[in-house]
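A.,

Following up on our hallway conversation. Structure tokens first:
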């Protein structure tokens, strides 16, 4: 007996998560309304042979996993994250990208449990958790974790790059992934307006280690996020060696029609010593020197205008008494430059928001879907509209539609601006900048508590032009950002507010 089933007995059987399905229709209705956010997540419809390691791997990109309980007979598990923020980010991400274990889609929702009370003597679970977190921080896995890792048998990873502000080349991927083993082949392509790659290792264990360590990481500061799962393919067929595809085991392959061929000395340098060509940026996975980053940023404009993809979002479940085009402009403006906002005339709890491109729309959706605004959990999805129409001349739509194309408040006008590197999910801690010299901590505490929240902590940076302020909840911080970003502090100095990744 491996201790897991003993622990399962400890779960309250009365919990509606476990028996909800059998109570007839009432509990079904209840379950649709979802439990409030909790750092414990309830995962359903797991494949029979799913291992704990694979369940833990779902949570790792979002932060520390502190406990797991698997209910083998029910194909369910409970996963406890280190913080509620990590759990919220995880649920938001998996509402836009269906999580899979062994190619089977699984369902994730908040649990009614606030923490998992499992048997402390359950050493095996603790051992798996420790081993997996060791792999994530660069250690090598113990033998039982190696077995679990090898269970996912494909050596081929499918990689999607989200939030692609800088171009990612095949060589950059080769350099990052070769830290985990021999990369044999890579094919890159664009599908559904997303840059994707298939990458084949010589051994499935290397693929699993790379997935555990890299899934959810950013290649460059705060952008180019790797989303990794296993491909159904077990072998890639590469016909050409060029900048789109490469078979490192067959340097003699042709370049193909109209494709730049690869200088073989460069290819050789890559396969021999993949650290010599690219410098490091602090906080990034490390390709790209600062100069190259600036050049890549200049090329961002071309990337942004991908044809055929919409930059329009549909936001629903808004608090119609409170919401205004301006409040949506300010909140969504954290993740991109909002061009137009239209609150729907016949359905005032919904709005269309046009971002300046599809990347920004994707970014805003992944960060804001499921957050609370004016007391309601908002839903954000991509709209089928390509643009938001303005009302016809002379028609008054009660100020429900606003054009922000020429707004001076856009954060991302300058290519390569620092703001690109400071895009974070909503958090209780806000970063304040452009603070006038004569403004004190008390002034700011008062200003932010008047926005309807409780200030938990405050810290000035050394020059006192910037500060961190921590509200008691993420919802209060969202409210304060909406109310106080661009607030006139006197002398025509406007306060700038954004979400921070730090805590005080």
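Then the amino acids I'd put at each of the 504 positions:
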């Amino acid at each position: 007996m491996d201790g897991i089933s003993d622990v399962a007995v400890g779960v309250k059987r009365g919990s509606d998560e476990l028996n909800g399905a059998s109570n007839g229709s009432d509990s079904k209705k209840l379950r649709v309304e979802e439990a409030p956010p909790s750092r414990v997540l309830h995962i359903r419809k797991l494949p029979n042979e799913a291992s704990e390691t694979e369940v833990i791997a779902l949570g790792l990109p979002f932060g520390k996993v502190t406990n797991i309980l698997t209910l083998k007979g029910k194909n369910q598990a409970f996963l406890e994250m280190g913080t509620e923020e990590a759990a919220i980010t995880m649920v938001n991400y998996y509402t836009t990208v269906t999580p899979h274990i062994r190619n089977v889609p699984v369902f994730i929702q908040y649990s009614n449990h606030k923490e998992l009370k499992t048997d402390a003597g359950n050493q095996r679970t603790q051992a798996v958790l420790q081993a997996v977190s060791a792999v994530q921080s660069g250690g090598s896995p113990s033998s039982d974790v190696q077995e679990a890792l090898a269970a996912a048998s494909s050596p081929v990873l499918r990689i999607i790059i989200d939030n692609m502000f800088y171009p990612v080349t095949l060589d950059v991927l080769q350099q990052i992934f070769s830290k985990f083993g021999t990369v044999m082949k890579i094919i890159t392509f664009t599908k559904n307006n997303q840059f994707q790659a298939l990458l084949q290792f010589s051994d499935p264990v290397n693929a699993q280690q790379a997935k555990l360590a890299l899934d959810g990481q950013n290649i460059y500061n705060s952008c180019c996020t790797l989303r990794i799962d296993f491909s159904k393919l077990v072998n890639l067929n590469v016909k050409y060696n060029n900048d789109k595809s490469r078979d490192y085991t067959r340097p003699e392959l042709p370049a193909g029609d109209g494709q730049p061929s690869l200088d073989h000395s460069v290819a050789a340098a890559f396969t021999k010593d993949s650290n010599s060509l690219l410098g490091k940026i602090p906080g990034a996975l490390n390709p790209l020197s600062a100069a190259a980053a600036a050049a890549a940023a200049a090329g961002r404009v071309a990337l942004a205008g991908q044809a055929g993809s919409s930059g329009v979002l549909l936001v629903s479940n808004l608090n119609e008494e409170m919401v205004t085009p301006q409040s949506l402009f300010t909140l969504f403006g954290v993740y991109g430059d909002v061009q137009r906002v239209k609150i729907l005339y016949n359905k005032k709890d919904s709005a269309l928001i046009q971002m300046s491109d599809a990347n920004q729309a994707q970014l805003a959706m992944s960060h804001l879907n499921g957050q609370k605004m004016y007391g309601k959990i908002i839903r954000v999805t991509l709209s089928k509209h390509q643009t938001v129409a303005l009302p016809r001349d002379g028609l008054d739509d009660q100020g429900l539609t606003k054009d922000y194309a020429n707004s001076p408040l856009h954060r991302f006008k300058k290519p390569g601006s620092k703001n690109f590197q400071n895009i974070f999910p909503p958090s209780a801690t806000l970063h304040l900048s452009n603070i006038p010299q004569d403004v004190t901590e008390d002034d700011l505490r008062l200003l932010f508590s008047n926005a309807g929240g409780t200030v938990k902590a405050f810290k000035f940076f050394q020059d006192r032009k910037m500060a961190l302020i921590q509200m008691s909840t993420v919802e209060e911080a969202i409210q304060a950002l909406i109310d106080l970003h661009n607030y006139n502090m006197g002398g025509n100095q406007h306060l700038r507010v954004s979400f921070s990744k730090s805590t005080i």
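The two ends are 44 Å apart (CA to CA). Curious whether your intuition agrees with the design.

B.
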